[in-house]
């Protein structure tokens, strides 16, 4: 009988203990919910792993975590869309808040040319002068075609080898806003965004021929198919 009474007491103690723990948990959850509602907690992006520099951020690399507002960095990303697909400028470590300033956007040139080259493309620089570079009027972001004039079996030919190619940089300038003044100098180099397959004929043309850029309208994306022109083609 005495043992039975002890067992009952122990059982009641366990029940009351669980009930008390549940009550405390519910209270804390209520307090937390109230804090979240009042803005005392903020959901921010936190790295779930080590993310090296110059890495494109994928959803599995981070989690959204609620953190007390007083511990949230003002530059911390609060929306997955702010960081997904962007490149890291510096290393980000596990459990570190992901800061917007550590990421490079699509047209962010602050960290150099590599951050604005589209996936699958390469940056190739060609020499130009005032004539071949469209009188120095080409700016980053413009689209151009590339003509090459070369000698083949004692014949001079001009061919349209590339079309609708994006200009990444003019000389060392990667910003379209810079160098728009009336006194701007003619460019000496232009860097183009091309595929590896396009890079080969472009480099060959610049090494063995004479290239000229042709400015395109930003609204014109049409690709034309025309034969090469020789001296005979100029005679009517």
From TrEMBL:
InterPro entries: Pilus_assmbl_Flp-typ_CpaB, RcpC_dom, SAF
Domain SAF stretches: 42-104
Annotated SMART domains: SAF
NCBIfam families per UniProt: pilus_cpaB (TIGR03177)
Protein name: Pilus assembly protein CpaB
């Amino acid at each position: 009988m005495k043992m039975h009474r002890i067992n009952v007491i122990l059982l009641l103690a366990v029940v009351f203990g669980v009930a008390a723990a549940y009550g405390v948990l519910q209270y804390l959850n209520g307090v937390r919910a109230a804090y979240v509602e009042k803005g005392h907690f903020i959901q921010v992006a936190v790295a779930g792993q080590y993310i090296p520099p110059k890495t494109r951020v994928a959803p599995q690399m981070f989690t959204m975590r609620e953190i007390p507002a007083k511990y949230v960095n003002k530059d911390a990303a609060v929306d997955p869309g702010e960081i997904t697909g962007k490149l890291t400028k510096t290393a980000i470590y596990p459990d570190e808040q992901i800061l917007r300033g550590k990421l490079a956007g699509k047209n962010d040139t602050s960290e150099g040319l590599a951050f604005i080259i589209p996936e699958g493309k390469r940056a190739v620089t060609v020499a130009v002068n005032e004539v071949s570079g469209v009188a120095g009027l080409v700016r980053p972001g413009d689209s151009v075609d590339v003509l090459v004039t070369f000698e083949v079996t004692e014949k001079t030919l001009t061919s349209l080898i590339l079309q609708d190619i994006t200009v990444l940089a003019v000389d060392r300038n990667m910003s379209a806003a810079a160098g728009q003044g009336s006194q701007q100098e003619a460019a000496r180099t232009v860097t183009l965004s091309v595929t590896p397959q396009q890079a080969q004929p472009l480099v060959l043309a610049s090494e063995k021929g004479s290239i000229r850029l042709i400015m395109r309208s930003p609204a014109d994306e049409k690709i034309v198919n025309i034969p090469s022109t020789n001296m005979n083609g100029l005679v009517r």
